């Protein structure tokens, strides 16, 4: 899957870096390569909950293209404890 990043118009950097400097591009790519949960926010926008290889959990918000071969990251941030518990419960039940 190709991953592209939305650019913030004001700062001219990836949008997720404006408010979430503790998240790296590498973390985002690892989350999307591992098992993740996907939630539909609106008609096009998806919320993804998953973890990187170091088991750090993140929420990534973005848009898949129609064929799901390309994902445009809008923002990403570390998941809260309640999100991690939800993820573990959902994955263990499957």
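Q: What amino acid sequence fits the structure above?
A:
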């Amino acid at each position: 899957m190709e991953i592209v990043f939305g650019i913030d118009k004001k700062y001219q950097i990836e949008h997720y870096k404006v408010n979430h400097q503790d998240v790296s591009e590498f973390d985002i790519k690892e989350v999307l390569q591992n098992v993740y949960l996907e939630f539909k926010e609106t008609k096009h926008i998806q919320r993804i909950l998953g973890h990187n290889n170091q088991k750090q959990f993140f929420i990534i918000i973005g848009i898949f293209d129609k064929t799901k071969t390309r994902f445009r990251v809008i923002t990403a941030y570390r998941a809260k404890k309640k999100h991690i518990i939800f993820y573990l419960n959902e994955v263990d039940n499957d």
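Q: And what stands out in the fold?
A: Residues 81-93 form the longest helix (13 residues).
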